[in-house]
Amino acid sequence: MATKATKTKQKQISFAPGKSKRSEGILVNASSPFHVIESFKNIRTNLLFTLATRESKAVVISSSMPREGKSTTSANLAIVLAQTGAQVLLMDCDLRKPTINRLFKLNTQKGLTTILCGIDKIEEALNENVIPNLDIITSGPVSPNPSELLGSKRMSDLLSIVQKAYDYIIIDAPPINVVSDAIIVAKQTAGIVLVARQGQSRHDYLQKTIENCRFADVDILGIVMNEAKSSASYYGYGYNYSYGYGYANPGRGAKQG
């Protein structure tokens, strides 16, 4: 594993307004609305507070079902963590339907699957300094046996290595009610942050997800409410939020009312 001091920086992504489609509300950047930026910073603060007492600094981001915003949440949380100066690694462990490579427009010829299959070394598949302080490992080529790869000793060894090299690791994983991949990975991390979408996520699906985490003895670190509607600002300034995030800490197996 290359150390941070010996890495060769690759071309950084520009987030200048008007120069990239990624600046149009997908990834947090200088031109993003104030309340979007502050919402992710609020999530970051809560997560850092939660991780302060944890031995592991790796976190899995998942959801109950597809299309609830877990991948964009993973990407944006990794971005705002990197903005603190911390060394952050974003890993795409959704080996069935990867998204991180498309969000950042990265090549997937080398990635997690080629590392776990022993084809590439970690440093060979690493996208360094995609933005300052943020490295990314994409999913790599599609694998016929993703659950086996994620539950392998190679994956355990990889997590052990990267947790020594980075301050924080954000892992984008598949929806929990669809496949078991997120639970498999989360058992080797500090826990899971669940993403739900207001007006779409169903209470019974979320409850089933919480029960699955409880059965597997995986901590739920918090819940991000995607596209939450609010009639008042977080700070009392009177803004009407049409887009935002909330953070809760229900604890392991907590029931949602």
Radius of gyration, CA atoms, in whole angstroms: 17 Å
Spatial order of the strands in the main sheet? 3-4-2-5-1-6-7-8
- Reported by name, the CATH topology is Rossmann fold
Regarding quaternary structure, what we see is single chain
Weakly predicted, low-confidence segments: 1-25, 231-257
> How confident overall, as mean pLDDT?
83
Q: Helices and strands, in N-to-C order?
A: HEHEHHHEEHHEHEHEE
> What number of domains?
1
Helix content: 25-40%
Structural class: alpha/beta
Count up the helices: 9
Under the CATH scheme, which architecture would be assigned?
3-Layer(aba) Sandwich
Terminal CA distance: 45 Å
CATH structural class: Alpha Beta
- Report the strand count: 8
Write the layout of secondary structure elements.
Layout: H1 34-51, E1 58-63, H2 70-82, E2 88-92, H3 100-104, H4 112-116, H5 122-125, E3 127-131, E4 134-137, H6 146-150, H7 153-165, E5 168-172, H8 181-186, E6 191-197, H9 203-215, E7 220-226, E8 247-248
Parallel strand pairs: 1-5, 1-6, 2-4, 2-5, 6-7
Antiparallel strand pairs: 3-4, 7-8
Structure description:
The protein has 257 residues and is of the alpha/beta class. The chain has one domain (34-248): Rossmann fold. It is built from nine helices and eight strands. It has an eight-stranded mixed sheet with strand order 3-4-2-5-1-6-7-8, sandwiched between helices. Helix 9 (203-215) links the parallel strand 6 and strand 7 (220-226). It is globular, with a radius of gyration of 17 Å. The termini are far apart. Mean pLDDT is 83; it is low at 1-25 and 231-257.
